[in-house]
Write a structure and sequence with these properties.
Alpha-Beta Plaits; homodimer; Aminopeptidase; 5-stranded mixed β-sheet; alpha/beta; 32% helix; 17 helices
């Protein structure tokens, strides 16, 4: 609703900065260049696909007077571009983006192959199935539902292109940022940037900054301007409970040979209460949400009824008073569980093992290894003797311990979180407030995990996520798209950020 | 140990009935005829394979003066043979056997194809792997470890052949049973005798008897003469707990959208205590084990240490004081459990469903439908709204009920159990005691389930299982075999049964 009003305002050229009309035409005019950028295939797993993208970036940034530099990296080099200010004592702002995209399966792209950009619409009919229709580029696209379909159209060539258009307008308006600007472009984000932490350590000096703005991901589900202070980290684990050496006839030994599926069920069941809250002592240690933080989270316009209806449940777990509060705590999620056979393959046996795969979403207060340790201790407190993962119990272990299990886990990466009301967050809040005459949605932390965390933590810099693209962009899936409204608003947002003084007068 | 002593006794012709030497030569001489019987393929699922077997039986029993009659049955007709006594007011004893065998995979038979009978040995080496070696038929096979390998050599042409040999000796000794004898031979037991209950109802009069002796299955694990009073029945069920409509990103909604794997774990965990005893009220109702029964069960020479070592656990579930007691109770076994993905397929999701497949072994006191009803009630008492199995919850159900599940089960067949100290059991105990000068192992009920139960229950006749073959016969598997010692002892056992007066003087 607020968003519609904003665009009405934009149309009427009231309450909007003077340069917006020019910015609007420039954005519209930039679409062919964006289509050309999107036409470059960009799967980092395919040799040679990223090089034309990097050359495109070097040319575009170079033409605009940016320094460009490749930072050696295992795999494909990072690209760092820079535009220093001449102001004395200026701070440095580092933007982060990525130019590579998810792998594609062209057979699943409805309107055109993934690297032939095409305009169209996406509609969900009453039965829930999605219809894609090709469309002409409308005269005033920001007022329609027309999208640009192509791999990486949202994730994440969009913010790079938006940045370039906003920059051009800034220069046309005779302005420059009041900070040293760096923009690092990751060519392997969708390939999990396997060596990024090392590269960041190696190039710490080149990347050094006072503020980090991460240009990735979609805005809040309501498609309003959004700032995010962090993301949860992730650890994963595997828990195996051992039963008989081989599956046993459930008649001969039912009621006698212990069933590992029951024991796994009881063990997993003991880790949480009926409301889904972890009952393992210490699991939530260190997390304190003060009144101001709770107020910020209560202000996030999550449409709980809509979420419930879409996902299909009537009562959420009891961790936190609302969705945003729930995401401030580490999770302990059973992502998979298996024992014996089910369905038509079911056999009347006592299974020999029962396995659960877990994932633990981490918050800043919750070190992954500490949580894994607590889970392991809990398993032992439930009477299980733990053996190393990856091998069967020995005869001696079977003879000695009534309950046998293995547990192995590892932390993929930690969480990061920057105070949205700290210097970096306040600056960005001001920029968006000035641009849209309305405060952005403030998300204290994303529920998901992004491999940027090592980057943030290694550079030890306050980092805020500035997402720009529409939430229904089919990220990582076929028919990825960018709602043109978000393209226009994204350019406007970045103009506001480039134009906003780091420190208020 | 006792068994070795018995055969020493047999060899020395002391403490054994006068005709035993003759019986011995006759048994040895019968082996070529048995080989010919075993050479007839007998998979009921393959058209035409059973007919030569039925003709063989009609000829063998017919030559011995038995009446023979085919009882129409869906699929393959049952064969009923009879030998009435001339005694006034005699009771009727019905023997049950089956002539069909499990399907075969000839490529897995080591010594010879499944329908080319061959003598050999089976040895398990220190690493646990099995070695098969061909052997000559020894002069006194009952004193060796030599086996006859062929499909159905144990399961269950053995007792039919043993019966014929014992009968011939009985006739040679100028004796006849003091009861009307009927022998019904099922040609579809390994194909689950799908229409047997109907056939038994149709032919109730022809099959009517005062005692039923089931000649099937192996003796107790110690390979001692054994009588079994019954078998557990079986019911199966499927329990599905519903989570989100589709798998959800565990980051976006972890701690918020309820996880069905956790709920299934907690639900299954709530059905039993830590010792594996069912905690659902009423589940064990009606089961009372008096002192005499407990004594009988404690007398079964189960080698608990050996069972633990073989199966690989150190502490049995707490249902009953020993294995035999445990089998007197219905089980509630998780035979399979699945949710999401595990192992290399694991994905960081909240799964959309979690499924458990259960089997409930039934005892005579425990009607399958009653137990399924108790489990269903328990699920509802745990706060779950149950929807019909086989469809997804509707949007309205998802919006209305915090916990959604489906549960569906059915009773395959009930248990049967006959008092081993009742008239039928006492008679058979006397017969074996007179034959071997030692009491048989008395198993009150088998843990497993056999499709004979409808037969027993429809005829409403006291039924006792008289197993004769060795426990390590590879029943249902490749390399099925009959230990020749068991062949000799089986003939001796059946001679004893045919010769034993139904009622002591």
């Amino acid at each position: 609703m607020r968003y519609t009003i904003l665009f009405l305002a934009l149309l009427l050229c009231t309450g909007v900065r003077a340069q917006d009309t020019t910015l609007y035409s420039r954005t519209l005019a930039s679409l062919p260049a964006y289509e050309a950028f999107l036409a470059l295939p960009n799967d980092a797993r395919i040799d040679g696909q990223l090089e034309p993208n990097l050359q495109w970036l070097e040319r575009e940034f170079g033409q605009r007077g940016f320094t460009t530099q490749r930072l050696p990296n295992a795999g494909i080099d990072l690209l760092l571009v820079g535009y220093p200010t001449e102001r004395a004592d200026a701070e440095t702002v580092l933007f982060y983006g990525h130019v590579d995209g998810q792998p594609v399966d062209p057979s699943k792209w409805v309107l055109a192959p993934p690297f032939r950009p095409v305009y169209g619409t996406m509609e969900v009919d009453s039965s829930g199935s999605v219809q894609y229709l090709e469309a002409d580029l409308p005269e005033r696209p920001e007022d329609t539902e027309v999208r640009l379909f192509a791999r990486s159209s949202s994730d994440a060539k969009a913010p790079i292109m938006m940045f370039l258009v906003a920059w051009d307008q800034l220069v046309a308006d005779g302005k420059r940022p009041d900070y040293h600007l760096k923009f690092v472009i990751d060519p392997m984000e969708e390939a999990s940037s396997p060596d990024l932490p090392n590269a960041v350590r190696t190039h710490r000096e080149a990347l050094a900054a006072d503020h980090l703005i991460i240009l990735d991901g979609p805005v809040h589900a309501t498609n309003q301007p959004t700032l995010m202070g962090g993301a949860r980290g992730i650890a994963t684990a595997r828990l195996t409970v051992y039963g008989p050496r081989l599956p046993q006839h459930s008649g001969h030994y039912g009621n006698y040979a212990p069933n590992p599926a029951l024991r796994l069920a009881q063990l997993l069941g003991s880790m949480k209460d009926q409301e889904g809250r972890v009952t393992i002592p210490g699991y939530y240690d260190g997390i304190e949400l003060d009144a101001e933080t709770r107020e910020m989270m209560a202000g996030v316009p999550d449409d709980i009824n809509d979420i419930r209806r879409k996902i299909g449940f009537s009562q959420a777990d009891g961790v936190g008073a609302n969705l945003q509060e729930a995401l401030q705590y580490p999770s302990l999620n059973i992502r998979g569980m298996s024992s014996g056979w089910v369905g038509s393959a079911a056999r009347t046996i006592i299974p020999n093992t029962a396995v659960a795969n877990l994932d633990l979403r981490l918050v800043k207060e919750s070190d992954g290894d500490r949580l894994l340790g607590l889970v392991e201790e809990h398993i032992e407190h439930q009477g299980f003797h733990l053996i190393p993962d990856g091998r069967e119990p020995t005869d001696e272990e079977r003879a000695s311990y009534p309950r046998l299990a293995s547990f192995s886990g590892s932390t993929s990466y930690g969480a990061f979180r920057t105070d949205l009301n700290g210097p970096t967050g306040s600056w960005l809040q001001r920029a968006l407030m000035h641009t849209f005459d309305a405060p952005p949605v403030l998300v204290r932390t994303m529920g998901g995990s992004v491999p940027i965390a090592p980057f943030v933590n290694t550079l030890d810099v306050p980092a805020i996520v500035l997402p720009l693209v529409n939430p229904d962009n089919n990220q990582h899936s076929p028919n990825e798209n960018l709602l043109l409204r978000n393209y226009f608003r994204g350019v406007t947002s970045l103009y506001g950020v480039l134009d906003e003084p780091l420190h208020p007068e």
